[in-house]
């Protein structure tokens, strides 16, 4: 009996030892898991992107990358700040209040002229959808035909300065553009600035037939919705920039196929825009994002020749005071290789 009792004690002792070992191992496993989670969280970097306008289809790739966790997979937690008429992405990024921004190429060049060193990383749109809109049937074939008409245009907008320098528009009556189209609709002879990706849709809703003349037909065709950072941030955070650009381009690649879903997300962020208008913009901007040079070289592609042309145009009209190396203003180093 004593032997049997001893065996039972031995079994109990063995079980106790094994239990303690399992508990210890379990504790180590839980600790390791918590440590791994902590390591993952610590590797997720917080950055901010400020948009050039309220959320629209021109930001579809951004919201695609957020919604599909593409930024997160690249170790980034991205806070998207909407733009607007009183928001300057250039100033916000220059002040360090956001790491990444979106602006048009001419805005980045003018900022450089003001001593703000910014670097373009990717061109969302390969050209400019900016245009002048006029009533259908009006005899407007070229920019000289704006003479003798009221032209609603934002004061100081760069392409208007270029056109006035390039063409004799001394007889055009320049009126301030405020985003409303009532006066344009009432005056059949008038012309207004517009984006071919949006205003024609609203005119169709008002049963006002219109035509457009693209600003790019004048030769002034800056990259639009350009992703940028400061030169200092780029030099100190190349890995973060590479991860952001990779996510950004992938987001735009995905948006081409998932726009219907992502547009619902954009509507939630900007309830002031109708889904039909958003879908119109998505359709009409397609060639600007995925066509032209992007069709051959990939989303975001930029060339020194295009930047050179734009820089020289701004020098010619006095919006740039000094020349500088074009290669300083942009880089394609972080764009994914075209497959």
From TrEMBL:
Residues 57-253 form the SsuA/THI5-like domain. The lineage of its organism: Bacteria, Bacillati, Bacillota, Bacilli, Bacillales. It comes from the Bacteria. GO terms for biological process: thiamine biosynthetic process. InterPro entries: NMT1/THI5, SsuA/THI5. This is Myristoyl transferase. The keyword Transferase applies. One of its GO terms (molecular function) is transferase activity. Keywords: Signal, Transferase. Residues 1-26 form the signal peptide.
């Amino acid at each position: 009996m004593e032997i049997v009792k001893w065996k039972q004690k031995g079994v109990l002792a063995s079980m106790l030892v094994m239990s303690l070992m399992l508990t210890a191992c379990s504790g180590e496993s839980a600790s390791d898991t918590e440590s791994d989670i902590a390591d993952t969280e610590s590797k997720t970097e917080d950055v901010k992107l400020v948009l050039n306008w309220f959320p629209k289809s021109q930001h579809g790739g951004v919201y695609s990358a957020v919604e599909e966790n593409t930024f997160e997979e690249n170790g980034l937690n991205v806070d998207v700040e909407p733009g607007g008429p009183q928001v300057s992405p250039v100033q916000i990024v220059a002040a360090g209040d956001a790491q990444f921004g979106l602006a048009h190429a001419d805005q980045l060049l003018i900022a450089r002229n003001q001593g703000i060193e910014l670097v373009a990383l990717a061109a969302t749109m390969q050209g400019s959808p900016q245009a002048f809109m006029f009533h259908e049937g009006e005899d407007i074939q070229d920019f000289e035909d704006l003479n003798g008409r009221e032209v609603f245009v934002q004061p100081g907008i760069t392409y208007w300065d270029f056109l006035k320098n390039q063409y004799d528009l001394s007889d055009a009556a320049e009126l301030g553009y405020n985003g409303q189209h009532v006066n344009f609709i009432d005056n059949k002879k008038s012309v207004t600035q517009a984006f071919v990706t949006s205003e024609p849709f609203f005119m169709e809703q008002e049963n006002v037939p219109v035509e457009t003349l693209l600003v790019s037909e004048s030769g002034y065709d800056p990259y639009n919705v350009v992703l940028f950072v400061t030169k200092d941030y780029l030099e100190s955070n190349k890995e973060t920039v590479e991860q952001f650009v990779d996510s950004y381009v992938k987001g735009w690649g995905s948006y081409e196929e998932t726009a219907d879903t992502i547009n619902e997300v954009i509507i939630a962020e900007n309830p002031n825009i109708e889904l039909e208008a958003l879908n119109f913009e998505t359709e009409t901007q397609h060639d600007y994002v995925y066509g032209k040079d992007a069709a051959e070289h990939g989303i975001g592609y930029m060339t020194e020749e295009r930047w050179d042309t734009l820089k020289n145009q701004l020098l010619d009209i006095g919006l740039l005071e000094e020349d500088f190396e074009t290669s300083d203003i942009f880089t394609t180093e972080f764009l994914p290789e075209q497959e």
